[in-house]
Amino acid sequence: MDATVDHYTVLGLPSGEEGANLTDKDINKAYKFKALELHPDKRPDDPNAASNFQQLRTSYDILKDQKARKLFDDFLRVKRDNQRRQAHRDSQRDGKRRKLVSDLERRERDAFSPDPAAKGKEEEDRIAKQLKDEIARIRAMHAKKVVPGFDSKKESGGSGGGGVDQEKVLKVSWEKIGEDYSVEKLRELFSKFGEVEDVIKGNKKKCSALVVMATKQGALATIGNVIGHLSNPLLVLPLKPAMAADSWGGSKSIERETPSKLFGAGFQAFEDCVLAKLQKAAAKQAKVVIPKGKWGLTSIAYFKYKSLTGLLYLVDSQDSATCGDMIQFKEASFR
Question: With CB atoms 3.0 to 4.6 Å apart as the test, which of 173, 277, 308, 309 could cross-link to 334 if both were Cys?
Fold first, then answer.
């Protein structure tokens, strides 16, 4: 029964009167920390990892809902009061005192006077029932909403069960050397192309994250368009490779294809298109001015195509040396 669970404790927060004074910011911070700790991907050998993570999400939803949280705080308060009264009665019920209290309670029942303990228990049961109804309401509200960070294959054993729609999930990675990306920065970059449901960042050693978009269209729009910092560009790939192939099927014009689709059936056509544009750009000898920045001076450079990976190297005007940084190719550079 959910009413017996201390949702503050589930999130690693203090309960009781101290928990009732916590702010939404404290709850959000505790949830993010616990989510990284209890995520099923971090505990592959724990058979209860999925259920523990689901309980964490349920407790978070209850504490974020003002009405449900107030009912839960009232439930804890009444429960603490009953426990204190019971402990006080137990400490006094010894010897003659116990007999006197027993006689008094019997006379009170005989006189049809309300029993304080029974009244407190009745109030506790009433609030517990309201809390249970409120939890059911929250679960019904989130019934159609997938849990961020879950892999549907892990949850249901196949693609037919519930869980995350993999076509809305993106795998994002970057190099260890260069500027790092926080959860807030990733959310800011991807939110330009649609609503972001969740961002789950791996540990610092992996330099990767999962980004869950609200729609499939939003996920497709980010591929090839979210670059990040030039000093440490992002590699954005779909969690489900099929979405990349689907994005090729809806367009008949090679000219409108983007570098994000360097895989699937249309790779050869896109490669030919890129080479044609590079030859055209080389003929015009379009110069690009590199602003004063990481190289410490302003220089004139040409774009030079290097291999078939969709990347460009920067070289100086004499083509004498290749710079250490790469710029991800974008079609607009050759229009």
Answer: 277
Q: Domains in the chain, ordered, with CATH?
A: 2-141 (1.10.287.110), 152-240 (3.30.70.330), 268-334 (no CATH)
Within its chain, how far is the Cα of 252 from the centroid? 35
Q: Tens digits of per-residue pLDDT, 83-128? A: 888 877 777 666 677 778 788 887 777 776 566 777 788 888 888 8
For the chain, the first-to-last Cα distance in angstroms comes to 63
CB within 8 A of 181, min separation 6: which ones?
A: 172, 174, 201, 209, 228, 232, 234
Residue-level length of the chain: 335
pLDDT tens-digit readout, 231-260: 788 888 888 765 544 544 444 443 444 444
Q: d(Cα 193, Cα 189) in Å, to the nearest integer?
A: 8
